[in-house]
Design a protein that fits this description.
This protein has 15 helices and five strands. By secondary structure, the chain is mainly alpha-helical. The chain has two domains: 278 residues, Fic-like fold, CATH 1.10.3290.10; 71 residues, Winged helix-like DNA-binding domain superfamily/Winged helix DNA-binding domain (Arc Repressor Mutant, subunit A, Orthogonal Bundle). The protein has a three-stranded antiparallel beta sheet with strand order 3-5-4. It has a two-stranded antiparallel ribbon with strand order 1-2. It is globular, with a radius of gyration of 23 Å.
C-alpha cells in the first residue's frame, strides 16, 4: 500500500479523464494504525451481528434502519426528505416534494430487493445494474439509462466537462473496470481483510462512476450488500450513509486524496472509523428499542380487552411508525369507531402523537420510536 498508485489522468482533447488502475491484485498490509482500526471495526461488527441475532423480531426494526439509510444517502445527493415525510403515502406528500420522496422510496425498494436477491444471486455487476434500475424508476435520471452502464462520458461538478471537478474514465473502459472489481470481490486465492476490500470497492466504484446518474447512492448501497453477501452480517443492520452525511467534507476529501495523492490508507482509516462508530450506534439503538418495547408492552397491558388490538397496532408501528384511523382499522379489523377509541387510548399512553393538527385526515406517529433513528 505504500507504493499504491490510483491511476493516471489521460488527455482527451480539451479535458483530462482519470483512468484508475485495476485493484484485483495482491495487497500487503503493513500499517499498524490501520491494523488496529481494522481490529476495532471487526470487533464492533461482530458485537452488532451477535446482538441482532438475539433481538426478538429483529426484522421488524430493520425496515426503519433501511429508511434512515435511504433518507441520509439521498440527502448527500441533495434530496431533502425527512423521515416523517418518507413515511407518508404519496398522495399525502406535497406535489413539490414528491420527486424527493420517490427517490427515497426507490432506495428502500432497491435495498430490499438486492438483499432478497442475495439468496440466489452473488454480489455482482448484474446485481449492481438491477439495483440501479430500481433506484432511477420514475425519478430524476429516469432517462439516463437505468440499469445500464454508461455509453458516453460523464463528469462531476462544473457546468461543462471542460470545467468539471472530476472526469471519470472513458465509457469504453467501464466493462473491464467493473469486471476487475468483480474479480477482486470474489478472489479467494489472495487473502485480504473483507472490510478493507469493501472500502476499496466503494472507492473504486465511485471513481469508475459507471452510470450516468445515481452512482453515489448505488456505491453506498453496495457496502451493506457486501457485508451481508460475505456473511459478515447475517442481517442488513449496518448502514454508513449517516456517518458519511455527518462527515460529508471528510468523506469527499478522503476519496479525493486517493485520486490526487495516492493516499489510500487515509481513506481506509476513515472508512474503518465509520464502521466502528456506526456499529456502536446501531447497538445502542437496538438496546434503546428493547427498553422501549418493554415499556410499551407494560403500558398497553393496562388496556384490558383492547390490549390485543393495541399490540397489533404497535407491531405495525415498529415497521412503519406512522398511522391513521383507517390503517388502525385495517390492522386490527375493528370498526372505525373502535379504531378511534384505540387511538385515543394510545395517545393517552403517549405512544401515538398527532402531527397534522387538523380535524380530518389526522396522522399519528410513534414518536418515541421514531426519535431513536434521528
Amino acid at each position: 500500500m505504500k507504493h499504491f498508485q490510483s491511476g493516471r489522468f489521460v488527455q482527451q482533447g480539451h479535458y483530462k479523464s482519470f483512468q484508475p488502475h485495476p485493484i484485483s491484485r495482491a495487497w500487503a498490509l503493513d500499517n499498524m494504525e490501520l491494523i488496529q482500526l481494522l481490529g476495532q471495526a471487526d470487533r464492533e461488527l461482530g458485537r452488532l451481528d451477535m446482538y441482532s441475532e438475539y433481538i426478538p423480531n429483529v426484522d421488524l426494526f430493520i425496515s426503519m434502519h433501511v429508511l434512515k439509510e435511504a433518507t441520509q444517502s439521498s440527502k448527500i445527493e441533495g434530496t431533502q426528505t425527512k423521515m416523517e415525510e418518507a413515511l407518508l403515502d404519496k398522495e399525502d406528500v406535497a406535489p413539490d416534494k414528491r420527486d424527493d420522496w420517490q427517490e427515497v422510496q426507490n432506495y428502500v425498494k432497491a435495498m430490499n430487493q438486492a438483499i432478497a436477491r442475495l439468496k440466489k444471486l452473488p454480489f455482482s455487476a448484474r446485481m449492481i445494474r438491477e439495483a440501479h434500475k430500481t433506484l432511477l424508476q420514475g425519478v430524476r435520471g429516469k432517462h439516463k439509462q437505468p440499469g445500464e452502464f454508461r455509453q458516453s462520458q460523464n463528469w462531476i461538478g462544473g457546468a461543462t466537462i471542460n470545467d468539471a471537478v472530476f472526469v471519470p474514465p472513458v465509457h469504453t473502459s467501464v466493462p473491464e473496470l467493473i469486471a476487475d472489481l468483480e474479480t477482486f470481490v470474489h478472489d479467494e486465492t489472495r487473502h485480504f481483510p473483507e472490510l478493507l476490500k469493501i472500502a476499496m470497492v466503494h472507492y473504486q466504484f465511485e471513481t469508475i462512476h459507471p452510470f450516468l446518474d445515481g452512482n453515489g447512492r448505488v456505491g453506498r448501497l453496495l457496502i451493506t450488500l457486501y457485508l451481508v453477501s460475505k456473511g459478515i452480517l447475517k442481517r442488513p443492520v449496518l448502514y454508513l450513509s449517516d456517518f458519511f452525511e455527518r462527515n460529508r467534507t471528510h468523506y469527499y476529501d478522503n476519496l479525493t486524496l486517493v485520486l490526487e495523492k495516492n493516499d489510500l490508507q487515509q481513506w481506509l482509516k476513515f472508512f474503518l472509523v465509520g464502521i466502528t462508530e456506526t456499529a456502536k450506534n446501531s447497538i445502542a439503538t437496538f438496546d434503546k428499542i428493547l427498553k422501549l418495547q418493554q415499556k410499551v408492552e407494560a403500558e398497553i397491558g393496562t388496556l384490558g380487552s383492547r390490549t390485543a388490538n393495541a399490540q397489533k397496532v404497535v407491531h405495525y408501528l415498529y415497521q412503519r411508525p406512522m398511522i391513521d384511523a383507517a390503517k388502525v382499522g385495517k390492522v386490527t379489523g375493528v370498526s372505525p369507531a373502535s379504531a378511534y377509541k384505540l387511538i385515543v387510548d394510545l395517545e393517552r399512553l403517549g405512544i401515538l402523537k398527532e402531527i397534522t393538527g387538523g380535524k380530518r385526515g389526522k396522522q399519528y406517529i410513534f414518536d418515541a420510536y421514531l426519535k431513536l433513528f434521528k
